[in-house]
Amino acid sequence: MIQIFYGDDRIRAKAEISKILGQNYEIYDGTELTSTDLPNLFLGNSLLTDARSILVRDFLSNKTLADKLPEYLDTSHNIILFELKLDKRSVVYKNLKNKLKFKEFTLPQNPNFNLVFDIYKTAKVDGKKALFMLSKIKSEEEPMMFFGLLVSQAIKDFNLKQGIKEKRALKELSKLDINLKSTSFQPWLLIESFLLRLSSL
Asked: Of 15, 117, 135, 195, which one has the greatest count of Cβ atoms within 10 A?
């Protein structure tokens, strides 16, 4: 039996994979497989057992393999294909959606997602106001995740306008990244310091 799991919540997906496949299963990287590997993967037997438990990551991202998947739907092995992303507009998905079980594992949307970007934009003109905004959500956020969103906003700004201020912001974020990983300072103190300095860069 083949099942397809997809989504960015790897923790929940892994728990479900272990529940279905057990603790001892074969793992393959779909990006490294070729079409000549498929008969052994889907139909080959093990010396120890006839029914194998197999996890294949990013199988459908390899179009050559994805196109051949319908040939192996009657496998006797217990196989889970785990995809980070699944294109539901693809021909492969449309051909398989009624033949295989698909299960989605997605991380919940951060309710503060847009507010994080507002904090960055505010910090570019008023650091103190940005800190006040941050104080309202800080207890609900993880500092490194928050830092990652700051970086994504800075990159977005740089792509829109490659000015001196945008370049300086990226350099400062690069330094902040090193400091966050190599010092014993409280992460939030380092992030707040950056937000205060951002308007004067």
From this structure: 195
